[in-house]
Automatic annotation (TrEMBL), chain A:
This is Transport permease protein. Residues 33-263 form the ABC transmembrane type-2 domain. It comes from the Bacteria. It is found in: Cell membrane; Membrane. The lineage of its organism: Bacteria, Bacillati, Actinomycetota, Actinomycetes, Streptosporangiales. The keyword Membrane applies. It comes from Actinoallomurus bryophytorum. GO terms for biological process: response to antibiotic. InterPro entries: ABC2_TM, ABC2_TM_bact-type, ABC_2_transport, Nod_factor_ABC_transporter. It is a multi-pass membrane protein. The chain crosses the membrane at residues 123-147, 153-177, 184-203, 235-257. Belongs to the ABC-2 integral membrane protein family. GO terms for molecular function: ABC-type transporter activity.
UniProtKB/TrEMBL annotation, chain B:
It is a multi-pass membrane protein. It comes from Actinoallomurus bryophytorum. It comes from the Bacteria. This is Transport permease protein. Pfam families: ABC2_membrane. It is found in: Cell membrane; Membrane.
Length: 266, 264
């Protein structure tokens, strides 16, 4: 078994991945309040930034020709950020605990489960949680009266795509971590991305060179995607964002599965 | 010479020495959390979002650019957050899983010494963070060079006012999830709605009195009026009095709880 592990072909067939999801669901029955916090946090940001700072900002001009209110501008971005954070937390923090302290995967691998199924199962699990959080967020946002068209429902599949991309990136990241201290480095990347990837203000406040840099960030495209679906201003941006996120996610997933294979089989 | 100085020092300084010794291993991460984090917020909100805000010219900012308005808020909110984080997790760990407190209590250190020593450490951290933060803010042009030094003692007061009640509570806590819940459902909302990012005059009328009683607003308003040069004596006295009372009451309760928890 181990002798051939180095030559395992990179395929993404799910195998027994569902078993991993099932296992997480059983654990989750005892830890579900965590999800409340995950919904609560973006709402808090929405109230503070959308409503509080919104009064200072006024209308945001130049989005698809029409002027949108500031809460409407911020809400989809916060959803994209929540989808990103939820997925990344699942495959970095939680997986790191299972990899090092709990040795969960080592026990699992003594069963017919393969590393690939473990990895895909964890990504699916992150997606399931993301679906829950984004649906709840959308529900609250519509109660607040920020949703104007049923097309906003598309924000849930958008959040799932974002979750997929970042869960897969997290899968690569978790195999690179040397210790607990490295979580600081993740923060050091995630926080600036959260603040600068057009969450709170449009791209046009930056000088052109900075704009180019921001346009490379995966969160920027995630926000473009959710904002376009939420505000109903689709178009070319949407296609670019979907292709970019799907491609990045698939590559990251393949690399992540491969790297996890090496981490767990040696 | 060195050992002589150590032997003569008050017991609380022994405890302080312990935390400082540990800090030598963790300072890099702590800088990320307590300095880089608020500075990034300051850049993104003050400069980026500030462009939108300044263009709109809100009457609530009294003619100040947005970056000057949120700098004191960011500083005080960050100080509160660090004070809470330092006085929550490490205190709980020190009582139960790691047991540093229990080990210290087995020496001639009294529970009060342990508290004072740890408190001095939090105070030092607050001073260190606020010096770094205001230093960079001067470079941003977000605060005048002459007023910036006044912000450091204010930050220290806020840190102590929040650290002592936090320690009083977390020394009794047994589960980490309680700390997380407190952070998410109390500290974070305080952070967002105490005038940090927007003036509380903007809140609906019925909510404003709530903001007036929250301790963070007193810290933010004290710091902001000093930074913008609009401080008045009565207002300053109310703010400092409130925060000092909170620090003292917190200290008394913490001393009692430390004694109950560590003197077995």
């Amino acid at each position: 078994m181990t002798a051939t592990s180095a030559n395992v072909p990179i395929t993404l067939r799910p195998g027994r991945a569902w078993t991993m999801v099932e296992r997480n669901l059983m654990i989750y029955r005892h830890t579900w309040p965590v999800i409340l916090a995950e919904i609560f946090e973006p709402l808090l940001y929405l109230l503070a930034f959308g409503v509080g700072i919104g009064a200072l900002v006024g209308h945001v001009p130049g989005l698809g020709g029409a002027s949108v209110t500031y809460p409407e501008f911020v809400a989809p971005a916060l959803l994209a950020t929540a989808a990103m954070n939820g997925a990344m937390n699942e495959t970095t923090f939680n997986m790191y605990g299972k990899l090092t302290a709990d040795k969960t995967y080592e026990s699992i691998l003594t069963t017919p489960m393969s590393v690939r199924s473990v990895a895909l199962g964890e990504v699916c699990w992150a997606l399931l949680r993301g679906a829950l959080v984004s649906t709840a967020f959308l529900a609250v946002v519509s109660v607040l009266g920020l949703v104007h068209s049923p097309a906003a429902l598309l924000i849930v599949p958008s959040a799932l795509l974002i979750g997929f991309t970042f869960a897969s990136i997290g899968l690569v990241v978790v195999t690179l971590l040397r210790g607990h201290e490295d979580f600081q480095l993740i923060q050091l990347v995630m926080l600036p991305m959260f603040l600068f990837a057009t969450t709170f203000f449009p791209l046009n406040v930056y000088p052109r060179p900075v704009q180019v840099f921001v346009e490379i960030l995966p969160l920027y495209h995630s926000i473009e995607l959710t904002r376009a679906t939420f505000l109903g201003t689709g178009g070319l941006h949407l296609v670019i964002a979907v292709v970019y996120l799907a491609a990045l996610g698939t590559v990251a997933l393949a690399v992540g599965v491969h790297r996890l294979e090496r981490t767990l089989r040696t | 010479m060195h050992t002589l100085a150590r032997a003569r020092s008050a017991p609380a300084f022994r405890e302080l020495g312990y935390w400082l010794f540990r800090y030598r291993r963790t300072w890099r991460g702590s800088i990320v959390i307590s300095v880089a984090n608020p500075l990034l917020f300051l850049t993104a909100l003050g400069l980026g979002l500030g462009k939108l805000v300044n263009r709109n010219g809100s009457e609530y900012l009294h003619g100040h650019p947005y970056v000057e308005f949120i700098l004191p808020g960011m500083l005080i909110a960050a100080v509160m957050q660090t004070a809470f984080l330092e006085a929550a997790g490490p205190v709980m760990d020190a009582v139960r899983p790691r047991g540093n407190y229990r080990a210290a209590a087995a020496t001639p250190l009294a529970p009060a010494d342990i508290l004072y020593g740890h408190l001095m450490y939090w105070a030092l951290r607050a001073v260190q963070n606020s010096i770094m933060f205001t230093g960079v803010s001067i470079l941003f042009g977000a605060v005048s060079v002459y007023r910036a030094p006044l912000l450091v003692p204010i930050a220290l007061l806020v840190a102590v006012a929040f650290a002592t009640p936090a320690a009083a509570w977390s020394v009794t806590v047994t589960r980490r999830s309680q700390l997380n819940a407190m952070f998410r459902f109390v500290v974070l909302p305080l952070y967002m709605f105490s005038g940090t990012f927007f003036p509380i005059e903007q809140l609906p009328a019925w909510l404003r009195p709530v903001a007036w009683v929250t301790p963070l607003w007193h810290g933010v308003d004290l710091c902001r009026t000093v930074a913008l040069g609009t401080a008045t004596l009565p207002r300053t006295l109310i703010h400092t009095g409130y925060l000092a009372a909170m620090a003292i009451i917190g200290l008394l309760v913490a001393r009692r709880n430390y004694r109950r928890k560590l003197h077995v």
